[in-house]
């Protein structure tokens, strides 16, 4: 009589197989991306000090952000290919004969998937922003371009009872063409000042050669008193990180930066739905991955008489990716029809997760 292998050995073998295939998918995915990105840089090679080595360094430094952006697809493909290998070589039958049910196998898949997801989240939140910034800075310097020229767009900003307009922003610390308007308690214009230049030190604006216009009501007549200052200081509640993040899309902000940005917007009664939607998408990402995997595993654990395993894996991946696309569309639709983006982001995922779990449990009980 053949003894079943110990449970710990089976667990390690399943985990090792899934990790191997997930890492394999990641290497191939990054290799293809890096190749096409390097091809896009060919036209720039030869300009100033931008060499082939410079292009390679730029492409490699940008890879952490690629891993983070495509982590769901990479993990999904890796885990499914690992399960497909076990099924195609009849190892799943041996595993199940060792006393491991389909639900237990699914749990082990989730452990591997969530482990990779945790690693990619840490990579995307703490490492990718640094490497991406370095990559862009390195590329601009090698091409002989002035980095400050890419950071001169102006902005509008509401800070408490003040509205600030900056025509040019240099690295979030030096502003040109600065107008600051203060509102009174009735939200009417109380004073306005203009300066050709202001320096932001992280907590206050230091204006140079400022003209300040104070409005005073005298019955039905509004008097304007103008005064010139060689220097003028205005305290603000925002910091330099917020200024630097103004020029970034919500997708490029870290979770911490998103939360701070949302808090600032809410404190100033400004719209924050776009940033809230991005924050909810990041939060629901691990749950979405679990739902995608459960959907796909329904096909792998089915009978091979109806279709080949390859077709089943392909169909499972397509349905899972369509589900992820629909969950993203749900969040965008919530903005269009003005209902809670939290509901639009989480509701489809939780619904599909519940259905996939019940179907997978049913299939486990049948076998």
Tell me what the structure shows.
By secondary structure, the chain is an alpha+beta fold. The protein folds into 3 domains: 7-147, no CATH class; 152-243, SH3 type barrels, CATH 2.30.30; 250-366, no CATH class. The protein is built from 11 helices and 6 strands. It has helices at residues 7-40, 52-61, 63-69, 71-88, 91-97, 102-142, 240-245, 255-267, 273-300, 309-336, 341-366, and strands spanning 155-159, 162-170, 174-183, 189-200, 204-218, 221-235. It has a 6-stranded antiparallel β-sheet, with no helix packed on it. A hairpin with a 5-residue loop joins strand 3 (174-183) and strand 4 (189-200). The mean pLDDT is 81.
What is the rounded distance between the termini? Answer: 23 Å
pLDDT below 50 for ≥5 consecutive residues: which ranges?
Answer: none
What is the H/E string? Answer: HHHHHHEEEEEEHHHHH
Global Rg: 28 Å
The level of helicity is: 55-70%
> Can you tell me the number of structural domains?
3
Number of helices: 11
Largest sheet: 6 strands, antiparallel
Tell the overall outline: elongated
Mean pLDDT: 81
């Amino acid at each position: 009589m053949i003894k079943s292998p110990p449970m710990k050995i089976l667990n390690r073998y399943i985990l090792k197989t899934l990790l191997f295939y997930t890492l394999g998918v990641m290497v191939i995915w990054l290799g293809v991306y890096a190749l096409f990105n390097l091809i896009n840089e060919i036209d720039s090679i030869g300009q100033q000090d931008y060499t082939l080595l410079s292009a390679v360094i730029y492409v490699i430094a940008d890879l952490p952000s690629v891993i983070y952006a495509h982590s769901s697809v990479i993990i999904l493909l890796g885990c499914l290919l690992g399960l497909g290998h076990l099924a195609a070589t009849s190892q799943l039958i041996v595993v199940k004969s060792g006393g491991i049910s389909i639900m237990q196998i699914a749990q082990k898949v989730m452990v591997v998937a969530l482990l990779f997801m945790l690693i990619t989240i840490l990579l995307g939140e703490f490492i990718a922003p640094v490497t991406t910034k370095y990559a862009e800075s390195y590329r601009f310097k090698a091409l002989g371009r002035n980095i400050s020229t890419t950071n001169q767009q102006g902005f509008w900003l509401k800070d408490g009872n003040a509205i600030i307009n900056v025509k040019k922003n240099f690295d979030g610390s030096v502003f040109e063409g600065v107008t600051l308007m203060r509102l009174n308690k009735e939200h009417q214009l109380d004073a306005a000042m203009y300066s050709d230049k202001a320096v932001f030190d992280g907590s206050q604006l230091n204006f140079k050669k400022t003209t300040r216009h104070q409005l005073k009501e005298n019955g039905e007549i509004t008097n304007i008193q103008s005064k010139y200052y060689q220097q003028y200081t205005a305290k603000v509640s925002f910091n330099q990180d917020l200024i630097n993040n103004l020029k970034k899309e919500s997708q490029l902000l870290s979770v911490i930066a998103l939360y701070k940005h949302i808090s600032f917007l809410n404190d100033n009664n400004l719209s924050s739905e776009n940033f809230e939607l991005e924050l909810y998408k990041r939060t629901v990402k691990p749950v979405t991955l679990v739902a995608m995997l459960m959907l796909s595993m329904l096909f792998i654990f089915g009978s091979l008489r109806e279709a080949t395993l390859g077709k089943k894996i392909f169909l499972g991946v397509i349905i899972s990716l369509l589900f992820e696309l629909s969950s993203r569309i749900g969040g965008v639709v919530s903005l269009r029809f003005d209902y809670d983006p939290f509901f639009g982001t989480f509701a489809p995922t939780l619904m599909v997760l519940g259905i996939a779990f019940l179907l997978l449990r049913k299939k486990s009980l049948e076998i």
